[in-house]
Each structure stands twice: as C-alpha cells, then as structure tokens.
Amino acid sequence: MKRKPTTVFSEWAATGRDEPMAKGHEVAVNNMLEYALKNKKNFSFIDAGCGNGWVVRLVKAHNDCAAAAGVDGAQKMIEKALSIDPTGAYHHADLSKWMPNEKVDVVHSMEVVYYLSDPKAFIAMVYKDWLNKDGRLIVGLDFYKENTVSHSWPEDCGVSIMQLLPEATWIRFFKDAGFAEVDAWRVGAKEQWAGTLVITAVKKT
Description:
The structure is a single chain. The chain is an alpha/beta fold. It has one domain (about 5-200): 3-Layer(aba) Sandwich (Rossmann fold). The chain is about 35% helix and about 25% strand. The chain has helices spanning about 5-15, 20-35, 55-60, 75-85, 120-130, 155, 165-175, and strands at about 45-50, 65-70, 90, 105-110, 130-140, 180-185, 195-200. The protein has a seven-stranded mixed β-sheet with strand order 3-2-1-4-5-7-6, with helices on both faces. The longest helix has 20 residues, at about 20-35.
C-alpha cells in the first residue's frame, strides 16, 4: 500500500535511512549551493524539505550566512534535525502552506518538490511569499521524465504522491510564477542515469 511521502520519510529518519540519502545527494547539493551562494553577502536561506537538516547546517557554517532555516513535513526528520542542532531553526509544517516570518535571499530544495500535490502552486508561493527581490530559488530533482530509471520509484518506495514531469514543464512552472533568468542543467549524468536536474531562477520584482 502506498503512503504519504511525509509518513515514509519519518520512517526513514527513525531507521537511519536519512543519512545515506543525504550522502547520495551531496554532489548535486554542493553544485547547487556553489551556484546559488556565489557572491552572496549577509544572505538568508531556507531549505524547503530539509530532512535531518544537513544542508541547513552546511549553509549556517558559510561565512556570509546571516540566517538559515529548514522546513519539512516529516516530523521525525525535524526531531532528528533538532537533536543534532538544538539551537537551529527547523520547522515541522506542510510545505505547501507554511510561510516564513521574513522573506529570504535563497530558497533551496533538493528532491522534494515533486512530492507535493501541486508543485506549480508551491513555486508560485515561494516567488510571492518567501523570496526577497533579487532572491533565488534553486531546485534539484532526480525524479523526472527524462531520467527513465527513476520512473519505478513510486512503486519501489511505496509513495502515494510523486509528480513525474518533463524538464520543460518544470521550467515553465518557474516562468509562469514570474521568475526571470531561468536556467537548468544536469549534475552527475552517466550511463542509465540522466543526472540530477537543477533548475534555478531569480525574482526580479
């Protein structure tokens, strides 16, 4: 029986599967952060779907980071994040409804957005309610149409919500939200693996 993503990932946190998952995303995330944080000074940051908080902790250590927070729908992931980093800003909430107290300069999301029932609405909300002017959204996806090896994941993982969309659709979501300077590339492509699809853009208004 398929279950909600937040239920599955809470279970992964409880059984330690979050750690190898983070390790598997490390190369792509480092690529994304290097791009998104380049030349940023005194920036604020949100990791949308932060899991056990490893990206938040990484960014907090950045010399130019003023504030870094994480939000995730899986309660046990947030509990784990707080157990590792008790003074950290980690929020247990439904990503599609949560609002930050203050807008930020960078929103990062790795392997999360396609678990939402309406990813287009989420991207529009980040644009409108999460980002400062000149703020950047950067998203990494392994589950997308062109990466054919990923198509079996909903069955393999028993997850009820996974939006299998082509790269062009994800790019359109960013443009429809109002983002400018939309860019996309793949990280770690090899035989039988199309790579992590990275999409990023800037809020200019």
